[in-house]
Amino acid sequence: MEVIIKERGLWPEGGLNAQCQGFKCLPGKTNCCCRRLLFTQPDFQNQKSQLEEYITSQGHICDFYPKFHCELKFIEQYWGAVKWRYRSTPKTTDINEMEKNVIACLDDVPLLQICRYANRSARFISAYSQGLNGAEAVWANRTYHSHCTLLPWMVEEAKKHLGREEIANK
After folding, report:
1. Which spans in 1-151 are helix H?
2. DSSP string, 74-96
3. Which superkingdom, per the lineage (predicted)?
4. CB 98 within 8 A of CB 89
């Protein structure tokens, strides 16, 4: 890291630590350690991960979902349905039979159900992006589940229903 920073002419006279204690840099600091200094450089920020580069080189779109709750990732809901189906399969100790059961369970979840999971996730993402908290998003999702996303009047209704009227009126 030191060599790269020196090549860029950014190395301070007093030197830098490799990283801040516990990877916890001070908020707003860009030159507290080598790690943060490199992390804030434009070419480092714009670099895609090796996985993302590989996926896009194969002609696919790479879309990483945020690290939040499973309600935002429909694949988690799909896996839950697969696991529920797998639990009802006969117990076996044969690995080949287990693999067949898993594949059968993966194929057993109807496409319509998977689409419903995707729509549910889209509604939660819409709710959170419009400022609802967890309880409000759950209420809005249950109440307006026939819509793909939440309309602004639905968001206001959710806020009023759960006692955030002062926020809803702003």
Report:
1. 2-7, 34-39, 42-45, 50-57, 74-87, 95-108, 111-129, 134-143
2. HHHHHHHHHHHHHHTSPP---HH
3. Eukaryota
4. no
Tokens at 41, concatenated: 């450089």
- Residues 89/101, Cβ–Cβ less than 8 Å: yes
* Phi-psi sector, 26: left (phi>0), alpha (psi -120 to 50), beta: beta
What phi, psi does 45 have (nearest 5°)? -65, -35
- Taking every pair of C-alpha atoms in the chain, what is the biggest distance, in angstroms? 69
The string of pLDDT tens digits covering residues 103-140 is 999 999 999 999 888 888 888 888 888 888 878 888 88
- How far apart (Å, rounded) are the C-alpha atoms in residues 57 and 163? 49
DSSP 8-state class, residue 13? T
**CA-CA distance, 152 to 170, in Å (whole number)?**
13
Q: 11-51, pLDDT tens digit by residue? A: 888 888 888 888 788 888 888 888 888 888 888 888 888 99
Give the number of other CB atoms < 10 A from CB of residue 101: 18
Count of beta carbons in the 10 Å neighbourhood of residue 28: 6
> Is the pTM value of this prediction over 0.70?
no
